[in-house]
Amino acid sequence: MGLLGRYGSIKGDINGTESVVAYTTSYVTDWKYISVIPTSVILSKVDYIKNITIGLTAVLLIIGLILAYFFAYVNYDPIKQLLHWIKDHISITGNDKYGNEFEFIRLTLSNTYDESKKIKSELLRQKPILKANIMYRLLKGSIENRDIDELKDYLDISFDSDYFAVVIYQINHGGKLIKEGNAKEWVLTRFTVSKIIDEVADKYVNSFVVELDKDKLAEIVNFRVDDIDECKKELLDIIAFSKDFIERHYEILLSVGVGRIYKTSGVMSSSIFWNLEK
Predict the structure, then answer these.
(1) Would you say which domain of life the source belongs to (predicted)?
(2) What pLDDT is recorded for position 274?
């Protein structure tokens, strides 16, 4: 076994035992100092560290699995409850085709959102009809003020004062819009008259036009001032301008009845009844 260099180490078989020979050379006496250590002694420490490492890894892996299971259970439990609630309260067909719970929840929420959009769209489409119905009931005196208060925000109804009046527009002749006298022509005529009345009145008052009959409209007027004389002047100016504009541009002949001005909407029906009796 050659010891090359001033220091180093070599592996070899010494007396039948695999050993590591380490050597170094003295700079004073030029002697070589040799240390022979069996490989098993060195590896025993390595094996000890290796076993400790494997043991710690195993322990940490087990702890990690336990914690993973615990947190998975804790986090999944609300999802499981949500799934049960969805299946109990929302009717959805074809649940078996969904790959997993999250896909099922996603598709359920997507379907629910689509249905919500459809309902919202339908409500928006029905809003003018609901508003007209509320105004018609208000004319008849068959709705309470608290009911109006609950619905006015949703239906975009606003009252700026406590003074109200009702104006009746009787369409005596359809003018340019009535050719054959069919229902479609009358719908267009009523729509045209009501839009013009609304646009003219909106500059001065809150105006709500309601259809009473094929050839008859009622306008609910809510004044923005609290002076009776000023209310009367505004009302007459609105009626005069609207009537003149409609008759000149569309040749629609109107008869107009003006009701008394009342304070609070609760007695509005009195205005229309007084109006119709005239």
Answers:
(1) Bacteria
(2) 46
Task: Please name every residue paired with 34 in a beta bridge, in sequence order, or none if there are none.
Answer: 23
CA 91 – CA 205 distance, rounded (Å): 48
How many other C-beta atoms lie within 10 A of the C-beta of residue 8?
A: 12
Res. 191 pLDDT band, cuts 50 70 90: very high
The answer to whether residues 185 and 178 touch, using CB atoms and an 8 Å cutoff, is yes
| Range 223-248 burial, b when 16+ CB lie within 10 A, else e | beeeeeeebeebbeebbebbbeebee
| Residue at token pair 């004389």 | 229
Report the candidate in 272, 242, 274, 277 with the shortest Cα–Cα distance to residue 168.
272
DSSP 124-142: HHHHHHHHHHHHHHHHHT-
168 burial type by CB count under 10 A (0-12 exposed, 13-18 middle, 19+ buried): buried
123 vs 118 pLDDT, higher one: 118
Query: Which domains does the chain carry?
Result: 1-87 (3.30.450), 90-157 (no CATH), 158-277 (3.30.70.270)
Residue 255 to residue 264: CA distance in whole angstroms: 26
Rounded CA separation 197/250 (Å): 13
Please give the model's pTM, rounded to 2 decimal places.
Answer: 0.57
pLDDT, position 259: 82
Q: Tell me the CA distances in angstroms from 274 to 166, 237, 259, 264, one per residue in order.
A: 10, 21, 6, 16
